[in-house]
Amino acid sequence: VLRRADRLAFEDGLAPIELRRLKKLLVGTTFLHESVRFACGQEDFNPNDIPTGGAWISRLPSLSGGPDYRLSLNLPNGRHYSLKLRLKGRPWTRRERQAIQWSAALADHPGEVRLLAPLGAVRSREGAVSRLYIGDLTVWEKIRDFAGRRAAGSPPPETAVWRKLYVEAVSAFFRAWKMSGGRIVPGPVSPANVVVPELDYRDDTIIAGIEEWAPYRNTLSLIRPIVDHFYRRSAADDPWIREQIEPEWIFDACYDALGRDEAAAFFVRLQADLEAAPPGAAGDADLPRILSEYRARFEKSYQIPLPGLSAVRAYQEWEAADPTADSKERERKVLDLHRKYDLGRFPEIVRYYLYRQTYFAGKSEKAEALFDRLLGLMAENPKAPAVRFVEISDLQAALDDERDRAVFSRMIFPNLAPDRRLDVVVEGEEGSERVVVRSFLLDRRGEAYAFSETSDPADIGRLYRLFYKENFPKVISQQDRHFVLQDAQDQVVGGLCYRVMSRSAVFIDAVVVTSRLKSSGLGGAMTDEFCGRMAAQGYTTVLTHFYLPGFFLRRGFKLDKKWGALAKSIG
């Protein structure tokens, strides 16, 4: 409990009634302690540690009538806490209580990125609520800053800067709508109500408040305020902005927030709502045409998401500052950006696109053309693994430098050991070609063996005969998929059989090595290589049964009661 009012310092201009309300709320109550504890996560905060005048209270501009205040708390030990306080001075209405409840849900939604600042303390009788204060510029303030620079003679920001700002800001409102179960429009839907971080790999765009939320009725109840406030209002204040911003970024934001399948379904509903509504009902008479053209491109091929484009831009800026970087440094930078922007959450085409536009940019006209052809095929079928396309073999063959070929191998399988050799070859007759990706595993004596997935009936038959010969209890199933291990004479001396369980999990049914190669380390090497390949294809879990528990436990598998099997996380 804060016991002394002299700890509080007030900005000039606050009315006497405001001062009385603030003192009544903060002094002699646990409100301040709860605010810091829940909003800032500080369990050991004691409000009586605040020195005289150490709690500075000032008024904030409010989008919804306020009044809103900023509480800046400075302690002798150097700690600083900043809170945003809304104090109505009367009990909340039913609608205001619902806004608080929705705020709590969106600020801490399981499995989702936080969209609102964490809540602190709540007092319904006083109409008071506190939350963590977010001091970054809102999108509207950034737009005003751009306008000010232009008025001073500076050129406007590049299109990529505008696009990132708009897509991330609008995406936040789509995410909030989704997190509400599609039940509310999290208003005010305005650039003045959203903060986009300066560092573009940070995924923590914040909506300032949802006090003006509204029930969601159809797609236009979400799209109309986006068009009005992000496009029409901005262009009305500064007509030059109209040439800088594109309406189709609304659809990019929807895709960024909802994912490909849900965004496609939203677009279908939006197109129907636009066609059923009077012209201009969405605030832009051209929006139906723009959406139709966007959908035609969207449905035909995969659209690279904003984080992938931002990662490429960050690499290009780094390369311009350090054009003499060698291949190791360039690959290290690509891997760093892939991690920073969390590109592993997207289909593997995004990883290939990143490498094409960064490390492999400018290698040769032939390599670039082959890479672009491969990306085009992957875009048409983003769920198909890249190693299913025969063009990947031609692309590897077009790389003359061994260092580039090694980087190419690690692009295909990011978990590949740094010294692992990889060959991509095409087998079969014309019209029925198949890609075979061979990695070369070393036994304990240093001899190399080729490891590859196969659909060749002859190789599969040899693998099953090996299971039988080694007394391995393997039941043949139509769901089986196969990897074979071959020696220098192309004899099958080992292999692995697995099946796909779900979009995220695969099951190793059997691993075998011929008797003469027992204790060679090849069984473990095959298992590790298999896990790396599955991770590259987007699987997150590898399962197996309890037939060889010691072998699999040594390879990082653990008992998983949910699956009822041994499991290893490879995400």
Keywords for this entry:
571 residues; alpha+beta; nine-stranded mixed sheet; globular
Structure description:
This protein is of the alpha+beta class and 571 residues long. The protein is 41% helix and 18% strand. It contains 18 helices and 19 strands. The chain has helices at 16-26, 31-40, 94-107, 139-151, 159-179, 220-237, 249-258, 260-276, 287-300, 306-321, 327-340, 348-357, 365-380, 391-397, 402-412, 457-469, 522-536, 549-553; strands at residues 8-10, 55-60, 68-74, 80-87, 119-123, 128-132, 184-185, 194-195, 206-207, 214-215, 422-427, 434-442, 448-454, 481-486, 492-500, 505-513, 541-544, 558-560, 565-569. The strands form four sheets. It has a nine-stranded mixed beta sheet, with helices on both faces. The chain is globular, with a radius of gyration of 29 Å.
